[in-house]
Protein 1
Amino acid sequence: MEDTLNRKQLKLLMDVSNVLNSSVDIDHTIDSIMRETINAIDAADGGVLFLYDEKENVLLPKSSQGFRLHNIDNVRLAPGESMTGLAFLAKNCLVFPTQELIKKTTSSMNKTSFIELEKAIPHYPSAAICAPIIRDGKSIGVITLDCFYSNKEFTQEDINLVEAIAHQAAVALEKANLYKAKEEHLNEMQHLNEKMVEQNALLKRSIDIHSNLTDLVLHGEGLSSIMHYIYQNIGYHAILISELGHVMASTIDSPFTPAETQTLLNSLEEAANETNPISPIKLTCKQLGDVSVVLLPIGSAEGNLGVLALLADGEISEMILAALGHACAVISLEILKNQAAFDTEQTLKGEFIEELLSGNVDRAFFERAKHLNLSEKGHFTSFMLRFREFDVTNQYDNHLQRQMVVLIQKYIDEHLHSGVAVAKNEQILVAISFEHPSARETREYQLNELLSYIKQQIQLKEWKTDIQCGIGRSYTHLTQLKKSFHEASKCIQFLRSYDLQIDELRYHDLGVQRLLLQNTKEELTDFVEETLGPLLQYERSKKTELLETLILYLDHNQNVKKTAEAMHIHLNTLAYRLKRVETILEVDFQDSRQFLDVHMALNLYQYLQKGAVEITRM
């Protein structure tokens, strides 16, 4: 081909070749091809370099001169379409010497590209050359040159030079493409290397977290240390929630209300059935406002142990999830370890209480008492908590009982001298040792504070339970706790036997009623009916104030003056009413035996009324 070029054209071709080979940047090479070709061909007023896109099967404009850029860039030509498409298929340089031929040929162009082309050119060219760029026998593009002025035309020398430039362009493009492919490969390798470095760093971090968490467990640092490690090294605030819904450990003080905690637990159950249970859950908290929470289950082969809630906006990386997965396993082990320690401790305390209650007291008993920080002498009292509804086969009931024992023992350890709390069947047995010496009022206050704390926690945590409490008297020797427990048990028996709706009963408040504990409800009802029946029946039918008068008279220790003042009545009126009571009951208050029967029956009647027991036979 070079044999057909004159000396001037050869020089131009060499200049073009030098420019094309001066860069391996593909975009720079394409622009250079177009610019140098137009500079070398005098008749060329503008032109477009098209490259073939195999995926789209179209020729795309990659560089242009003398056209409106934003319009020409929208042109898309299929092989065989318009002048450029024809040259692409022919693999030969095609010349279009007249405007009429150009218009006729471009009329085959698709409508969208035709409109964009007309907008891109000042007017139809008077002549055009389309030279295909061929490499290895395949067309890879087309150089299209346009002459917009009729006083110029393309010569055979121009055609020969364009063909030669197209050949040089094919070589330059191949070299640029090879460089681009190599550069992309190097960039990809660099990116992969960076990813590997990043993954190795994350893996090392995960392994370090794994190792450090394991060390925390081995050194007995506890759940609180594990949670703070998660926050410091993974970057998320964490809250550990038990299967009952109470916060076991947290990096935030009082993060959730019981209702919010229950919402999290319900969300965890729903997430377990979803394809992506790790997605954040939006939650509005009273203290924290609107937060995103990621829930991770804590469990073992024995079942659900709770949930780890992370305050994390957005998705968590796989490496962090892997580290958190190990954290959950470590937390599970720690919880199981704590439960095993609790069970062992409960067994030892249970054996101690059993020995105490059985009266099997020896030197070994007092040695065990010392280990429990219980001295032989001091001030001791006991109480029993009974769950009204308790199913030993129900997991919730068992976990609830366990948590209450932990709660009570923790309070004793932090606020009282010493004591033990033990779960037994549907009850919790609690023995307390007060500081010695201590005033009776102080001991009563401390005991009341503990009982109030238990009730407050049940309400605060919204535990679904109803308990009764029986409280024994205080004694000064450890072995006398047996008697105190017996009294607490009698109170529980009294509450159960007579369906009393009160939830707390102290043995020393029973008074003479403690003598009636061995009687059934029917026997007590019979006694009340035999003693007070006529008065109660008269009261219901006549609606008088005789029963109230009798109650106030006994409450004021038979002091007629104080009774009359309390009822705002005259002494003669009080005397008349008391006489009417004696007549109705057919008793004489001067007879101490009869008066004692009435007094006992009235006290028992009031106890039964507190328990909402209807004495139907009266």
Protein 2
Amino acid sequence: MNNIKSNFKEIDKTLDRINNELIIFQKRIIKFQKIPALFREKLNSYITNFKFHNTEIQLNRKYNKILKKIKKFDNIINQFDYRRLAFDLIEEWEDTKIQIIEELSIIKSFISEICEEKKSEFLHNLEDKLKLLDNRIKLLKTEFDYIKKKKFEIGFDSKLSNLSVNKSENEAFVYITQIRRKLFKLDSEIRELLINNVEFDEIFKNLLRTWVSIKIEIQEYFIDLDRKIKTMRDNLVDYYKQDTDEKVSNIEKFDDITNELRFQLLQGHIQSILTERIEGIKNISDNLESLNSKLEYLIKTNDFSDGRKLIDMNSRQILNFLEETDKQIESIVGKEKFLEDNNVFNLYVRPYIAKFNTSKESLINRLNNFIRKSEDKLHLNQIKYYSKVINPIKLDLLGNYLNLETERLKEITLKFINKNKINAKIMNNKLYFQQIDSDLIDSKEIFFFKNIKTVGNEIYLNCKLTNPCNLEFKDFQISLKVPTYVNIQRKESFPKYLQLNKLKPGKAFKFNYILKVDKEKELKKNLFDPTADEIKLELFYKDQFNNNRKTTKHIDLFIP
């Protein structure tokens, strides 16, 4: 001992440092052992106050965060310079690590099942809403068929001598206005429900098919009716401009008729349409805020395709809504300026058209702003996401994932780099991320855990593959190679060459071997070969992008 101390004068300090590090390791292992209980307690609070989207996000985020901590500590302890002095501690960590992963997987599966139950419950409620909408559509169709059976017509001759507005026609106008309002209200509600539940758009297909058919039928009827109203209006205008004896003889009757028609047909009809559409614009504008929250959720859950669908669907439906309104107004009022000097029109109609145009321009500006910001947010998070999976990543490959031309992608990426939103650079048509902070476990890695126990001349090797991320891997091929002096007990072991179709997110695959040591052959092993006591496990699989991956695990039979 004195010779050792004389040759290694700092040995006492070194031993103290090693002991301190071992104490720190022990404390951290104890802290890790408490993680599953804390994880369960935290997630139980999410169940008690269940929030559909937030629970899913927090579940994956916290699970991945814990796995990253385990992986980081595992690397630290495996790189410890004095591992052979901490045999028991490392063995304890291996057992603890496997136990933690198993408990976390069980808890995550349990919470995921609850989320699925809640999702099924949510879908059931959504289907009930769709059934209610379907009943309202059928009721609207019945009311519309009643109008068609009455064959409401606006009659007049070239001299307007038979023109009159009777009570039944007034009632028909009221009835038609009600149908138009119900049509607009149903269309708005269906559109809003679809956009807010874009990830479940499949269950809307039957309803939309029925709705579009009935909506077109009713709109075609209204277009024909609006054309007749416009024709009446044009004839009234022409009659008003005449300077004939016939006009003078009918002036008293005409004044009564024009007053009635101007108020009931023009004022009432156009005001009703514009009032509904202005209110619709307000609702759509207010709904853009909730769409931002919806987009945030889809991005956090990496549902980029649904995020893109949300942006496109919302934009398309808003523009269709505005286009339909423009056509409807044009079919009644016409593009030309008429009755410009008429006080009735200026007083009652023109202000509504001006208000609608102002609201329309405001909505278009808000929509353009929403599209620009949403696409920037979507592109930024897509670039970050795929760079965490493949780094560096080719721009043309990334462009395929984002459905963007390479030059357009380069332009967008450079904008993000210049604004310091991503820490990356472009070289040789590849995007290099210099630093990646991620809650996403690298998709190239599968967690591998092993446990070795020796009983006599038999070695029990228990292995487990765990998929720690939110991505599915497939086409696994596992190959085992053992030292020459070791025999695999085939009846009690898994095959030497294994195949596995897929490993779902958060799931594990366990396999084990019983190995028997041939003592005579062991004596003949090459003592100078560092791999003489090594088991080699090769793992081949494909990631979610169909890229081939390979991982090799080297297991020393006599080192845990």
Protein 3
Amino acid sequence: MKGYKTDVARAAADYLLDSAQKPDHQAAVLAFDDYIEVPVPLQQIKNSIPYKLLLRNIVPRGNTDLFGAWQAAISTLRILDNTWDRRVVLITDGLMNRGMTNPVKFRQQVESIWRTEKIATTCISMGEDWNIDLLNELASVGGGSLHFIDTVSQAEQALHEAFHSNSGVIACNLRVELEPLNSAHISQVNGVVTHLEAGNTATFPIANQLLTNVEEQFILRLEFPPLISNQATDLLRCALVYETPTSAKTQRTADKFLHIFGEASGSSYGPAIVHQGIICTAHAILSRELFKQALDAYLDKNPELGTALLEQAKIALQSTPTTPRGYQSNVTMQERRIRDLERFQGHVPLEYIKQKYIEELSHRDVIWDKLCQLFDRLLTSSDNVHFARELTELFKWSNRMIDNYKLLLPIPFDNSNAEYLQDKNHLSKRKRFLSMEAFWLSVMANHVSKMLDEQKELVQWQTENSRDQSSIIAILAGACFGLERTRQGTQEEIRELMESYLESKYAIILAHG
């Protein structure tokens, strides 16, 4: 990488170092081209300034040993155990011309590491001369995400999203600030009649949480008198406002302006006011929605419907009259995704969809999948718990383990919540937390009592030890208390998850009471 690419890569590294200045964070920076260096070894960054200055001395030299750099990063992260969210972030153009250059082998290695060690690989690319096929495959099979950057601000945003893709939340309380300009006015917002005249400013909510790879739609009706040919004007100023999920600090994006030109028209009905980019965006949104419905159909084992919906998604793109230059990348990416499924000729493997297109599934599916993995880990870990002889001890142990596994939780939280149980200045919150605990203890007690009355047989774990149903219920009930306490979902949602998990894994039906 040379020129501005190096500057953008340094900005990304700077942001990473700043983000690692927390007790529960560690970071390392590797520099690579013909050679691989580790200017910043893996550590908690207490003061990022000296390391930023050190990175300024790194200059581009020659070729790119991308696979070797990735291997070195994996070796570095193996120092940490699997309770950490371990992630390699490759900032590269994806052009391999040094060392091992076989893309198939690279993909296989990334997939294997993610499957066996849960070390994710995220790819961040710059410029126009990048290997999209390789980087997309690495991110897809490696449990990571793919980002494209061209400026310093984009680099910071990409790094933020990369390390929050596992949590799902990249912004909270997202809203948009709107101001019509000149002769324009807003008459509708998301289907609701609104009267916002030119020169006035108003803020409208978009989402409580902005989730990784989940699109949010905001639709407004902007009215303005038609422009004469070649006339130019600004119609709208807008900016996004949100709080960061980790620090709750309010952020505001730069102002964006809707600038239009009056188009010449041969029609006697007046000048054309529909921009080709708007038409292209509408077709792309329709195609993505049909693509998602096709995925759902394949997952429901209905390949005929899936294939028909996939064909409709393809037609939605092909029927776009013109694709302006600035919209071509989104259309091309959607075309690639459609071709990717078409090659299976209607027989798309379910695991392939879940691995590569997990972001297309509903957010609840993503959250539940991660929480079920956490249940698996807790039940396996409890084999080594010898002190807990009573069910209440297992319950409390499992609840405490949720704090130990906080980096694996889909939705981030801070440890200050745990202090409410002891802090007399937070009596209302302490009461609410005790109420949560009582609910999950009652779930445990009710089911165990009913189970003993019916004299159900013991179930065997898929491990060396066996554990009766009472212990399983106690561990999961304690975990669910921890999940509700850390706001991974509502009480109803978490209980539904627990019931589904027990029924599918152990054929246990929870007793309601």
